[in-house]
Structure formats: C-alpha cells, structure tokens
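Kindly inspect the following:
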Amino acid sequence: MPPALPDDDIGILHADLDAFYASVEQRDEPALRGRPVVVGGGVVLAASYEAKALGIRTTMPGRQARRLCPDLIVRPPRFAAYSEASAAVFAIFHDITPVVEALSIDEAFLDVSGLRRLTGRPLTIAGTLRSRVQDEVGLPISVGIARTKYLAKVASALSKPHGLLVVPAAEERRFLHALPVERLWGVGRVTSGALHRAGWSTVADLAHADPSAVEAVVGPAAARHLLDLAHGRDTRRVDPHVSRRSIGAQQALGRATRSLPDVDAALLELVDRVARRLRRARRTARTVTLRLRFGDFRRSTSATTLSVPTHETSELLTAARRLLLTRAADIAREGLTLVGIALSGLDDHGEQLTLPFEDRDPGRLDAAVDAVHERFGSAALRRAVHVRE
C-alpha cells in the first residue's frame, strides 16, 4: 500500500505504459499473454516482461534474443495499432487533467495538484488513471507520484510493472540518496564510469561530495545539473503547451451493450466533452474518428472528414452518428463494450463564423453551455438523455 500524501505540493504524476509495443500485441492476441514476446525481428524494439525476465532487452539483436529464449515469440511492429492505443491512453490523461506534458508515445507527466477539491488527492487520481487505462484500453501502466518531475519519473520506473509508487516530500532525501548514480538523468555509461572511479556510486555519495571535485570529473554544467538532482532541486513545471494533433475521449460500457440508443447516449456525452475541450483550446477540427470495441473484443475504427473545419457540437455529433449507424448491425449482433471519439486535423482558428448568421446559431448555444460548465462544473448542466431517475 503506497504511503499517504501528507503534503499539498505533491501533485506531479509520471505515467508510463509498461512494455508498450509488446503489451499491445498481448492485448490484441490473448494467446500471447504470459508468454515471452518481442516486437521486431532483426533488432528487439520492445520486449514483454516475460521476455525481460530471461535477459532480453530493447535494441538487442534478434539472434541473441532467440539464443536466450528458443521459444521466443516474435511479432512484426504494427505502428498504426500502437498509435491508436497511445491516442486512447492520452485521451484518458486529458480527461483527468488539462495539464499534460507528453514525453513520448507511451509516457507523460500530469499535474493534478489543482484537482483535490474536484476529484480527490493525487493518490486517488493515480489509481483511477491506472484503472481506466487497464479497463478502457486494455494496457498496464505504471505511475509515480512526487513533488518534482524527476522524482515522479524515477518512482514510476521503480514501480514497474503495473505499479504505483509515491514519494512523500518528507521521504525525498531518503528515497533519493539510496539510488545508484545511474538513476540520475544524464548519467550514461561514460559518466557512470567516471563517477564510480571517483568513488561516488550512490546519489548520497554525490550529494555529500565537494562540488569542485564533481566539476573536475564531469565539468561545470554537468556538475550543477547532477548536484541539483542529488539534492532534490527540480523547478521544472509540467508544460502542456505542446500542440496536440488530436483531441479525444472514450467510455467503457461494461457488459456488451446492444441497445443503439444507449450507445448513442454515450457517444453524445463524449462529443459534448471533446467539443468543449476543442472550443476551450480555440481550435477547430476537420476529421472525426469513431472507435468501437465489440463484445468479442474485436475493434473497429472509422473516420470522416468534414468539408469545413468546425468546433460546433451539433456538426461533430452529426458526423459521429453517421459513423455509428454504419456499424449498427454489428452492435446489435456482437454488443459493444467501449465507444470512443477523436477529433483531428486541428487548426488554430479561434472563433468560428458560420453562414447564414441566424439568431438560432448553434454556436451561441455552445458558448452558453460552455460558460455554465466553466463557472459551475461539468455536472451543472446535462442533457436529458443522461439524467437517470
């Protein structure tokens, strides 16, 4: 059980998907679960944890990997599948907090420090994040929680696989000083060798070293960087101001839902959500993508491109509903366990003007609804179809 969070300034999460490519292969081909799997033939691009337990590592030559494990299962990379899975995970990140900084296709920092009164403490939020990624996307993810980005990233790495680790502010020094110097950002094979030759094998050794001695070994700039980390100094904030290529959201439906009205109600809620985020970012979208997961866990992705980019809920909903109706027969036959929507082809056009200019302009309604949500919260105003007796 992770320790409690006694400090209000602990609110940075580092979320990192476990053995991402290999996990997607195991998710999509259940027979591979629990077995050693690698992605990539000539060179290992990713290895499942079962393969890692046998000494197989990323960038290892394929021949060497097969020598370590004659029963190794090798799959060619499917980058479209990985991109789709990443988009689904990041949709969950952005549904949890708007302050998300993507590091790569499979990891990100999230700042949840301002969400305590809305959704709970960081530990609760991290637990929700892990559950949603597992339930909605079918992938394991590890999360570290700390006061700084560096500590959160180290915590997530130490919690793998599929773990959760908290570094309370009061325990930072003890946590840091027990780490080997290789855990410091920027310490590769060459720097590691130089530090060990100088007699510094742990972060504690480095933290207690004479700064001038560290400078003599690694140079002034590297010395300042490493000593800041060794003393827990990391002032970098989570930076969400990186233009995303898509905005999305998805919802797990539980047991296979066969009622098209139920699916439509879920889709309506998702379109409301992503359209509101689109307008908040002052952007428009040209492409609407619908993602479905049927009762037999088969997946479907379909998309349509609009003639004019828009951020109006009604237009986006119409496009999404057209896509949904093309799969109505499959939904009735197989049932549906998940529905997702993604908007792409994003442009920074700000306010959207439509013709003709009528008093019953749907854009005015969107603006009024957005204003209510911004002031009173997302639960303050709901569509009648989402109200349960």
Q: What stands out?
A: The chain has three domains: 1-167, 178-230, 246-386. The first strand starts at residue 12 and ends at 17.
